[in-house]
Every structure is written in C-alpha cells, then in structure tokens.
Amino acid sequence: MSGGLLVAGTTSDAGKSVVTAGICRWLRRRGVSVAPFKAQNMSNNSVVAVGVDGRGGEIGRAQAMQAAACGLAPDVRFNPVLLKPSGDMTSQVVLLGDAVGVASGRDYRAWKPRLAQTVFDTLAALRRDHDVVICEGAGSPAEINLRRHDFVNMGLARQAGLPALVVGDIDRGGIFASFFGTVALLSPADQELICGFLVNKFRGHVDLLRPGLDTLAEVTGRPTLGVLPFAADLWLDGEDSLAYNGLLGRPGPPHGRQWLRVAVIRLPRISNATDAEALAAEPGVRVRMTAEPAEVADADLVVLPGSKATVEDLDWLRRTRLADAVLAHAAAGRPLLGICGGYQMLGERIDDPVESGRGQVPGLGLLPIRVVFDQLKTVRRANGVGFGDIPVSGYEIHHGQVADGDPTLTPLLRYTDGRPEGARHGSVMGTHWHGAFESDGFRRRFLAEAAAQAGRHGFAVAPDTVFGTAREATLDLLADLVEEHVDTGALWRLIESGPTGGLPTLPPGAPDHG
C-alpha cells in the first residue's frame, strides 16, 4: 500500500496540524505504518530532528508532535522546508534541517524551483518507506496569488496524486462560504482533488448544522466527512505564536495551598514558546503569555523565552518598559528565567554580527556573561543533569554563544560529560536548552525552588505529573475524536484509493497553473 492524503484548510490555524496528528494516531492504532509530512512550514517553534546525514536538523514543532502520533522519532524529512521569520519581511530558510540562507517574501520566489524538487523527492522517499503519508497543507489552498509556484498545497497534491480534505474552523464564522469559496477559486484540475470537508471546533448538536451540510454537498458535490467538537484540552505543541496568547492551558487546582503565577513575556519574534507548556501542565501553576508590564510585576516567576531576533526583541522590551518590569522583578529577589534568546538578553553584552548585524549592544546586565553570535548555528540534542544529579534532556538551536563569564558563576545544568551549561546568579537563571522542563524531576525541583524564592511557601509541587503522559493523552484524544466524529470508512477509502473521479467543477474556477 502507498496511500496518502492532503489535509488542507480554509485558513491558517484552522486545525490542520491537530487533524493531521489525529489521523496519524488513528492509522497507527490500525497497525498502519504512517508518517507525517508538511512540505513547508512557517514557524519559530522548532525542534531538533534526525538529519539526512545523522546530524541534528530543525523541523517545525507540529511535525514532531505528528511524528509522536505515528510512533516515530522526529525526522527532517517530515518538514523539508522550514521558514523561520526573523523580521516583518524576511525569514531564515531551513532546508532538510539545515539553515541555508535568508529570503524576503519577494526573493523567495527564486528559491521555489529548488525547494519544490527537494519536497517532491522527499515525499516520494517517505511514501516508499511507509504505507501511508498524511500531508499537512499550509495556509489555504485558495491563495491563488501563490498558486503558480505552489508546492505545499494543491501543487503538492497534483504532483503526488493526493486526495485533499479541507478543514474549516467554525469558531471563525462563515464556514460554509469558506468551504464553497475554497473550492470555487481553484482551477478545475485542482478542484478534482478536493474530495470532502471537515468541520472543526463545533460547539453544539450536529443536527443544527445538518441543513447547511446538506446544502454544501448539493452545491459542491462533495460530502462533509465529519464534525469535530471543540476540545479545550488540545493546547500542547502549538505550531506558531498565534497559539500562545493569554492563559496557557487549563491549570488544575493547586496541590498545596497557593498558586504559582508565571508570566512568560510574549516577544514579537518569540521562538519555541512551547517551552512554557511543561510548566502549564503542572497543577497549581498558572502560566500566562503576556506583553503587559503590570502582569510581569504581579508574577511570582517571570520567563524570558527564546527569540528569532534577540537584539530587536531586547529593543522592544526596553521601548515597552517591560525591561523595567523585569529588572524590578529581579531586584526584588523573585525568580527570573531566560531560555535561549531570553538567556542571552540577561547578560551584560551581546555581540551580534549575524542576526541583526548591530555588533555590540548592552544586555539587561542581570548575569555576568557576554554573548557572541556565531555564523554557524548550534543545532543538537542535549543531555545532562541539573540541581546536582537530576537527569535532564533537551535540545539547542542558537547562533549566540557564551564567550566569557564569571568563573564562579553556578551553572544551571551540566552536560553528561560535566561541561557547564547556563547560569544561576541569585534568583536569576538562564539556559540555552529548550525542552528541559519536559524532564519531570528537573521541572519539579525548579518549581519548588522558584516558589520558595517568590515567597509562595504554600505552593506544593505535585509528585506525579508526567509531561510525556500528558502529551500521549492529547494524541490519543485526537485519535478518539477522529474515530467518533469522522466517517472513517470514507476517510480510509480516500487514503487507500486516491481522489474520487468525476467530481463536479464549480464556477468560476481559476486558471490552471499546475
């Protein structure tokens, strides 16, 4: 068997990533060898995956989550093109895990032929290795201004002969018009590959939708294969910064007498915001993504997360007076944590000829370190210990390197070989490691110490929270939703047999650029 499916969407953030993960886990339950694939992702939430030559490489966080749904380790083939926005008009281009350059929106068109061939070859190789590959589109397939050079949505479906399922988020409103308009704007050849619709995030009884679903089928000639209900627990592993605003997750009641309030500063170019998810999974830990100085002032623990543009985001901290709130928080002896770019901001000086080209700029001066940016990006898995002997694992993705610092500075972590990593200086802490708080013992010890430094002596860390179990429960919930609310028989036929022939063409249709 060499089946496949394209999960497209009416918009960005329609639910393509979670639907893809749910279908992947459903297929795995059936004993199918399945892999995820997203030709091109635009996200600063990335993880380190296995590269084509065994070295570490970057892929989007959502594809790592989908790989887990398939029971697979992250692999750069699952997301061959990753665009990491570094400014309003530019993105770093990561190809099969390696950063290969920076492109503006206009320049990127010249990259597409090379990238498209790599994408097509990579998908073909995956389909040889697995029974089924579930592909996730990007944005909307009806972005007809981009269709001529598309290799992510209908361009991919045409090249690989994939049936496409269109997902729509009913929370946004206008879902029937979005479904109809998505099909109608496509060329006849692209329309032939659109085989059905899937409603996402519905709140209510499905009978209320039935008249609309019936009419949609009449005017498009395509069925709706399922109506997925809204599920509040699906908040882990967001694909981009749109998923991280306000309260993170649904915090369980505290294990002790008090809550621990955590403020994660929502930087404009925030990177790997997913680091905060493990903290938010703990009972009694209230994690809020914020850009408000008042919420920083009110927090027990403040986190400066990663950034794809460290110097520019440090400027933004100062312009918004958030830097003043961070400094006041540290001066009061309350805990402050910097991760990757946030860690670099805490130092005395940053020398950056790479990302910003600004050279030497002053940091916040809260850690006695100096950071120098290297042209060669560090991309690797990391293992070691924290707080003496607690096992920790994570991953590193950064240009900035700690060039020198106070030799008496206490490291926050140590690599397996004993080398120091990160820093602890009073209540101020930092590390380059992403994902460290997914190590349960380290997270518990860190939160216990942070609560003590913040004076939250009534806070108690739950002894039994296992972050990996929480993630697996999320993936199983996604598969449950697919099994219970999707016509899985019709879905299986699409995956196994490909596009349905003889589908009607909707007027007006767009020119065929395929």
UniProtKB/TrEMBL annotation:
Active site as annotated: C340, H434
TM regions (residue ranges): none
NCBIfam families: cobQ, PRK00784.1
Family: Belongs to the CobB/CobQ family. CobQ subfamily.
Function according to Swiss-Prot or TrEMBL: Catalyzes amidations at positions B, D, E, and G on adenosylcobyrinic A,C-diamide. NH(2) groups are provided by glutamine, and one molecule of ATP is hydrogenolyzed for each amidation.
Highest taxon, organism lineage: Bacteria
Pathway recorded for this protein: Cofactor biosynthesis; adenosylcobalamin biosynthesis
Matching HAMAP family: CobQ
Organism of provenance: Pilimelia columellifera subsp. columellifera
Name of protein: Cobyric acid synthase
A Pfam family recorded for this sequence: GATase_3
PROSITE patterns cross-referenced by the UniProt entry: GATASE_COBBQ, GATASE_TYPE_1
Domain CobB/CobQ-like glutamine amidotransferase: 261-441
Positions of the CobQ/CobB/MinD/ParA nucleotide binding domain: 6-234
Presence of the UniProt keyword Ubl conjugation in the record: no
Keywords assigned: Cobalamin biosynthesis, Glutamine amidotransferase
